[in-house]
Design a protein that fits this description.
Two copies of one chain form a homodimer. With 206 residues, chain A is α/β, with parallel strands linked by helices. Chain A has a single domain, classed as TIM Barrel (Alpha-Beta Barrel), CATH 3.20.20. Chain A has an eight-stranded parallel barrel with strand order 1-2-3-4-5-6-7-8, surrounded by five helices. In chain A, helix 1 crosses helix 10 and helix 4 runs parallel beside helix 5. The longest helix of chain A has 15 residues. At the A-B interface, helix 2, helix 4, helix 5 and helix 7 of A face helix 2, helix 4, helix 5 and helix 7 of B.
Chain lengths: 206, 206
């Protein structure tokens, strides 16, 4: 039962402040794509430096240049980095090789991944796959729905996309290992309290 | 006839030095994905600041959070920003809206784009589409080939992927508007001379 706090559209100090508030309730902390693209890998470095005992996810959304990008993330302190499932398979495979070498993990974001790649990804061992309804799908009026397909038992499942107290019961049907929560915690008046409520609600559903 | 110099896997000062050497021969300068992810949008800002009269491309490879990322790039001085053709269409459409508002342009990177999205992208007016053999496909042993499908007359075509003097004749058959060149210029002993030779060779083929 892992809650991953996603930090997006903040400055690095704001992100650190929010994560400090929710620290006791979340196991994993995600340095969001927007932080990496806005401030570079120092966002990963500073957040890992402040939370050395948390698992830090660099949501770098690699689509190419896998070795360079994954090494940047791992060298900056990330424990897990993300690659797009829609990328060429050679890129995903390269991410896996780099992660193995660094003894770190890969999260494969399944957003808009085609059938061919999905099929190949199903056979990958020891990865976290992320079912993801994107920000744009949520905010710009697309009608994405959760993909209910089962994932293999040798993979961990993360779910992301506007997750809040109200969406928990439906999401729990997918039996996720990792619940990626962004604004329901980060935009709450009291991020710690919000994280606690989500965690308790999730525990009751288990 | 546009040469776009792609700057990747360099520090910002190195990138500026290389671009200075090739300045007279290239029309467009690309702030590569690796610069954005390593150093953030200040890489765009510093390169535009040094080359205010060049068209600056931010290769931000947006896959989600289109409004935020494209505004970051345009506010940092980019004239063109990139979105992945493999992203949800709502993301690509949001990029187009933001670019229109800022009177800037969108380059759609067709790397690993599925049939559905390709079909929809074909109908988009006033965009640059980029046929792209990725770094990982070049370096990690995949066997990608150039997609020879014609693009509509109302779109501009850019081509990217290990382009050098030797690949020019084959590429020219696609009649590209923009030739994206990376290491054949940036890793040359004399980037200016290398850019000049590529430009002259391309001119002779025209």
């Amino acid at each position: 039962m892992i809650i991953q706090l996603a930090l997006d559209r903040f400055s690095i100090p704001e992100a650190i402040e929010i994560a400090s508030g929710a620290e006791a309730e979340v196991e994993w902390i995600e340095v969001g794509t927007s932080l990496i693209k806005e401030f570079g890998v120092k966002s990963i470095y500073e957040i890992k430096n402040r939370f050395p005992n948390k698992t830090i996810i660099a949501d770098v959304k690699t689509f190419d240049n896998a070795k360079y990008e994954f090494e940047l993330c791992f060298n900056a302190g990330a424990d897990i980095a993300t690659v797009m499932g829609a990328a060429p398979m050679v890129t995903i495979e390269t991410c896996l090789e780099v992660a193995k070498k660094y003894e770190k993990k890969v999260m494969i974001d399944l957003l808009n991944t085609g059938e061919d790649n999905r099929h190949t990804i199903q056979h990958l061992q020891d990865v976290i796959v992320c079912k993801h309804i994107s920000k744009d799908q949520q905010e710009e009026g697309d009608r994405a729905v959760w993909d209910q397909e089962k994932i293999p038992s040798y993979q961990q499942l993360a779910v992301a996309g506007g997750i809040s107290l109200t969406s928990l019961p439906e999401l729990n049907k997918m039996n996720p290992d990792v619940l990626i929560v962004g604004s329901a915690i980060s935009k709450a008046k009291d991020p710690g309290q919000a994280a606690k409520e989500i965690k308790e609600a999730w525990r009751k559903l288990k």
